[in-house]
Amino acid sequence: MRSSVLLRDDVGKRDWVDFVKGAAIILIVAYHVALFLTSIGMDAAGIGRARLVLDLFPMPAFFLISGMFQTRVGSWSFADLWRRRLRQYLYLYVLWSIIRFVFYLVAPNVRSDGAGDSAQDPLALLLILVWPISSYWFIYALFLFTLVVWLFRKAPPAVLLIISGVLSTLSASGVLDTDNSGFNRMLEYLFFFVVGAYAHKRVYGAVERMRPWKAVAVCVAFAVTIGATFVVPGLLRVPGYELIAQVLVVAAGFALASYLVRLAPLKWVSYVGQRTLNIYLVHIFIISLLVALVSLIPGIERPLPDRGLSAIFLLTAVVVALSILLTRYLTRVSWLFVYPFRPRTARAVPADEALGSTRPKTDGDEGITR
């Protein structure tokens, strides 16, 4: 393929992974921006329903990709599993939960849903391993999911696929409710991690063999699903509907990514995708401070056509850019991102490596430190 203004000539066959991750983290930031804007009264102009749609793709996509990079754990001893995966996940989860606790002690609390109050609760901080309510539940989920796949390493793949599929169906529809948002979401998304771990070759093959007509077909299914969900949000409470919707949306997202990654004007999406963990760790703090400033604008809560969605788009772009800029300096403090208590000769395995960044790593660059 010749290089041009529109097409890239440097795209590898699996570079679509970074594109998916970039799109997913942008949607996660947008979802959290919508949550914060709702808290200051801007629940108009489609924000509420936009949140429902924004929630369908990013986490299933992230967990499926994360699972695709855990395929070797079944051959490891527990000592290897702990050293190469688990301790890094646990370290990041605990460390950044503490940072979040300290942040909310001093920063303005604009959340009206109780999340800000619980973040300031020292008891909640002490219980993060048994009652995960931190926004960093995703990292704890990687810890638990990786451990689950390892524990089932000698069982036929169908066993864990069926168990996780049933749990996802029941949890997503609200039939199974643990009264803990972190555990509920883990039950909902375990299925995608397991699919990634067991069917990574099939996923890669399906995307790499994607023909235009197949991409169009899954995108049409995606559009119909999104449209139905936006018009009738109650469909998400029907057992099995959300899982089907998530599978269709992820399939469409992967199909689109395999083509869109070739477009030069969208190269920045892959750039963002190579820094997903950095953005994930700090974006909540930036959103909180920016929305606190927005809340000071007189009359901001008055509904105006399209103002809510415009605010989501604008703040999302600003938050992503500031997150990348901030972590460019924060990553110089390596212990914020990499487990520090290890022999000097040991290789650190940061959490972002398990999210599957496809860019080459250089000395001192383990996937999250740029």
Q: Could you explain how this protein is built, in words?
A:
- With 370 residues, this protein is mainly alpha-helical.
- The protein contains 16 helices and no strands.
- It has one domain (16-354).
- 63% of the residues lie in helices and 0% in strands.
- Helix 1 packs antiparallel against helix 3 (58-68) and helix 1 crosses helix 13 (267-273).
- The longest helix is centred in the N-terminal third of the chain and has 29 residues, at 78-106.
- Mean pLDDT is 86; it is low at 358-370.
Compressed to H and E, one letter per element, the order equals: HHHHHHHHHHHHHHHH
**Main beta sheet:** none
Termini separation comes to: 29 Å
- What's the helix count? 16
Rounded average pLDDT? 86
Helix content: 55-70%
Number of domains: 1
- Runs in which pLDDT lies below 50 for 5 or more consecutive residues are 358-370
Shape: globular
* Estimated share of beta-strand residues: under 5%
Q: Whole-number radius of gyration?
A: 20 Å
What is the structural class? mainly alpha
Number of strands: 0
